[in-house]
Amino acid sequence: MSIEIDLQGKTAIVTGAGAGIGREIARWLARSGAAVAVNDIRPEPARAVVDEIVAEGGRAMVAVANVRDEAEVAALVGRVVGELGALDILVNNVGMHAGRAAVPLVGIDAAHIRDLLEQNVLTTMLCAIAGARVMIEQGRGGVILNVSSGETTRPSPGLEPYAAAKHAVNHLTWTMAVEWGPHGIRVNAIAPGTTLTETVRPVFTDEHVANIVASTPLRRMVEHDELARLSVFLCSDLARCITGQLILADAGAHLSRSRPRNLTE
Ligand SMILES: NC(=O)c1ccc[n+]([C@@H]2O[C@H](COP(=O)([O-])OP(=O)(O)OC[C@H]3O[C@@H](n4cnc5c(N)ncnc54)[C@H](O)[C@@H]3O)[C@@H](O)[C@H]2O)c1
């Protein structure tokens, strides 16, 4: 006997899916049968991911939008529902420390703080609210998955206010689960450990990577596809009794003691 995840007939939006973790989540949702809207602020990478999905026999559409912008988010959701017919799954993947080097708290200013709060909290809220409105109106439930971070499990010297912003995402996940649960909408979050995406790899020295591996119980980093497969599970009916959860996918890194980053970078 095998357990199969079948998302045939479901439609999904993955934000920031032109690269990194989002790209992999979009590909695995499509492999599971969902029709996927590949959102990104950059058209070319979004188109390339759609081409990859279609080449594998999946169904996908390019959905270019800056999800920091309320009007663009509304237009994005409207376009996806118009083209794919409905919205069942929303993955709020846009976020990031944006490839920045570590900066101590005393070194950051208002522009830095606003940038990270907007990139992580505003994007998640705008998309989740727009998506939930559609799901409530459709009356057939839905799934929202927020991409948080393993940084929320420990102090994050050098990575604020990124970790604080992702903490807000965790809290929002609870509230969304409670407010939208009666409509059959499940809301969960995943907290990835360090994953060497195109944005992250250049800011880490080899020594830094080796240190992370050495201090992580499983002595490894997290791979993109591992996060994608967890996401597909959480978006599927196999997880139909799970809501309001933060699932750590960090090779056990949350069990290690926090280590200050190189704050002189
Ligand atoms: N990579 C890691 O180590 C790691 C660890 C924990 C959590 N995360 C989280 O995982 C998520 C994805 O991280 P990643 O490393 O794959 O990112 P990434 O930088 O590789 O990819 C992000 C994508 O989002 C797009 N994007 C950026 N701003 C956008 C906007 N306003 N509107 C639409 N698209 C936009 C970019 O063009 C890019 O294609 C983020 O929320 C990040 O905080 C990453």
Structure description:
This protein has 265 residues and is an alpha/beta fold. The protein has one domain (11-255): NAD(P)-binding Rossmann-like Domain (Rossmann fold, 3-Layer(aba) Sandwich). The chain contains 7 helices and 7 strands; from the N terminus they run E-H-E-H-E-H-E-H-E-H-E-H-H-E. The protein has helices at 20-31, 43-55, 70-84, 110-138, 162-180, 206-215, 224-235; strands at residues 11-14, 35-40, 59-64, 89-92, 142-147, 185-192, 246-249. A 7-stranded parallel β-sheet has the order 3-2-1-4-5-6-7, sandwiched between helices. Strand 5 (142-147), helix 5 and strand 6 (185-192) form a beta-alpha-beta unit. The mean pLDDT is 95. Nicotinamide-adenine-dinucleotide is lined by residues 15-16, 18-22, 39-42, 45, 66-68, 93-96, 123, 147, 149-150, 192, 194-195, 197-200.
Structural class: alpha/beta
CATH superfamily assignment? NAD(P)-binding Rossmann-like Domain
Q: How many strands appear in the DSSP assignment?
A: 7
Order of helices and strands: EHEHEHEHEHEHHE
Query: So how many helices?
Result: 7
- Spans of 5+ residues with little confidence (pLDDT < 50)? none
How big a fraction of the residues is strand? 5-15%
Task: Write down the overall mean pLDDT.
Answer: 95
Bound molecules: nicotinamide-adenine-dinucleotide
Distance between the termini: 53 Å
Q: Over the alpha carbons, how many angstroms does the gyration radius reach?
A: 18 Å
Identify the CATH architecture.
3-Layer(aba) Sandwich
- Overall structural domain count: 1
Q: Please summarize the sheet with the most strands.
A: 7 strands, parallel
